Amino acid sequence: MPKGGRAKKKLALPPSGAAQGKRVGHVRSLLPGSAASDDRVCWRFTHVDHEGPWGFGSMDPTTLCEVLTKLRDCETMTLNELRTTRRFFKEYELPGGLSKEAVARLVAIGFGDATRIARLEFTGTQRLYGFLVGNVFHVLWWDPLHQVYPSQLKNT
Question: Which range is most confident: 6-10, 29-33, 44-48?
């Protein structure tokens, strides 16, 4: 008997391995559109920088819903389709025009040796930054004020 005097309960499994009334099978048969999703853009959130100035902690719920809706809409696109929407999607060589604060933050979080960073432009000054590996966009920063890679104004 384990410490504390109580025996651990075992989970009861359905006799056939599937619960009554549940759909079973390969996930591709259960999720609409999944059969053609291998080459579509998808997202990973493992490397989101919560501690830095461009974390998601300060994002208001309405903006978060808008961002998630935009990401959902992008999932219908292949990487080539995403790349042809030039105003929306760009990749930059590093350090390039990254702000000094962004370069320092990349070093602080262990990505100082990165050679490229990608960004999605939302509305106005809002940008989502991350690393593109294959068709997977690894989300890193939410930049609502266009501070990570500030624009050089023309004719100034």
Answer: 44-48
The neighbour count for residue 49, using CB atoms within 10 Å, is 20
Please tell me the total number of residues recorded for the chain in this structure. 156
Q: Rounded to an integer, what distance in angstroms lies between the CA atom of residue 108 and that of residue 137?
A: 21
In this predicted model, what pLDDT tens digit does every residue of 90-113 receive, in sequence order?
999 998 899 999 999 999 999 999
Q: State pTM to two decimals.
A: 0.74
The DSSP string of 69-87 is HHHHHHTTSBHHHHHT-TT
Find tokens 């760009």 and name the residue.
90
Put the strands of the sheet holding 136-143 in their side by side order. Answer: 42-44, 136-143, 127-133, 116-121, 89-93
Residue 118 DSSP SS3: strand
